[in-house]
């Protein structure tokens, strides 16, 4: 006769995030002792941590914290959307985000090495990895600062946690415009804030491609400089946040929208899970 009930399996699964069969086996081994079953899952899970190191973590969530002129963005990945939906994983993400805010970590490496209740964040992740049974990683961390910071989190599916997160730092208080620009960035995927931020080698490569394409198309030699410059400017308009056509009103650039609100963007960060 089983030493556990269906409710015990459900409770153990919700607490640990482990699979149903693993929960049943742990309860059998523990002879129905719930706390012992949790420990069994932890021990067995930790043995499998290294085996999961090469697994792909293409699911997960993006979480943000904004307080005054500071914004923090983290991306935490797991293997399946089932785990990403779970309360255990989402609570872990909240812990990681709070730690990133508290420690001032500006990258994943320093966050993972920081102390969280006597253990490193990496050790906490390893334990979660063990009980949940999936590889879990902190992929990226970003911090932006300004007079004010706007944020936007976007769910690509209603039953998933946010998959896209954006922070936009402004040099003035302009909450509505800031949020509009954050939503714009979520949709339009800018790579750089301003054209001055685009590396010189990237610009030079775009110029080479534009020239080669124009010659291939048989454009007149005398017109090449103008055509190449136009295509390079087109690259800026597609990839630079401040030069993009504003999603809500394509007749204006993002820079123009912010200027009308009495502000400009000084920094931004955009994460999309797995990208």
UniProtKB/TrEMBL annotation:
GO terms for molecular function: translation elongation factor activity. Residues 71-274 form the Translation elongation factor EFTs/EF1B dimerisation domain. It comes from the Bacteria. It is found in: Cytoplasm. Residues 80-83 are annotated as: Involved in Mg(2+) ion dislocation from EF-Tu. SUPFAM superfamilies: Elongation factor Ts (EF-Ts), dimerisation domain, UBA-like. Its main location: cytoplasm. Keywords: Cytoplasm, Elongation factor, Protein biosynthesis. HAMAP family: EF_Ts (MF_00050). Belongs to the EF-Ts family. Associates with the EF-Tu.GDP complex and induces the exchange of GDP to GTP. It remains bound to the aminoacyl-tRNA.EF-Tu.GTP complex up to the GTP hydrolysis stage on the ribosome. This is Elongation factor Ts.
